[in-house]
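FAQ: What does a ligand-bound record look like?

Like this one, built around 3-methyl-2-oxobutanoic acid:
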Amino acid sequence: MVTAYDAPTARIADRAGADIILVGDSVANVVLGYDDTLAVTVDVMIHHTAAVTRTKPDALVVGDMPWLSYHSSTEETVRNAGRFIQEGGAGAVKLEGGRKRLPMIDAVLAAEIPVMGHLGLTPQSVHTMGGYRVQGREAYAAYELISDANALTDAGVFSIVLEGVPDVVAEIVTKEIPVPTIGIGAGVSCDGQVLVFHDVTGLGAGEYLPKFVKQYAQLADDAVAALEEFFADVESGAFPSDAETYHMPAKSEEILRNLSDPSDHLMADEAMER
Ligand code: KIV
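The answer part, i.e. the structure of the complex:
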């Protein structure tokens, strides 16, 4: 699984063979310049989800429900989840949290919308976690997380993202639950892995990279080099060359050049009439 936020990133992810494209609320920091994910709304998420699904990818598209879109009531949660399907074209939604989110998860599932869970370091809880910290480091906290995973699975989620947890915790969850775990900073034992598009490809242009990221390309550096070359070509006159230029038929060009001679407008009018 990889994130994508717009048509080009979705096309690239799909061409590369992603099984799942997650339109993550990480769009907030990765694309929209916010410091965390809390600023994005359902409208913003649907705008990006629809851009991804308009490319008709083979991958399953999962829309990430933003903070406060599934926290106040089951009715509001279903309405918001339904917008991801109806307006965003997603095939499923993801929401963060454990047992305390069960009433919302039950309601969304009852509306026939598949749900992906998300446990561990859940970025929407940044303030209650006191920062972006690895979760489940102590035995009791880990046990609670494993219980959450079991409860979510019993409720009917089709997969769970495990983010920022020790590898042994992810290993136990993966062994215990019958649905696939998808890890991000959760070690090698998960059934699948997810990374943010801009992190994997190096498109993040100087963004901080967490320890769990492996960067497979430096697209931002390539883009800077391409733009530098473009600017230099413009300054030297090498761009645009004949290959990038439109031309007029020779006859029309001749008439036009005569027309644009201000001393001879009368003749030009006659030439046009002819
Ligand atoms: O929003 C996101 O990108 C995510 C993944 C990192 C799992 O939730």
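Follow-up question: can I read anything off the structure? Yes, for example: The longest helix spans residues 219-236.
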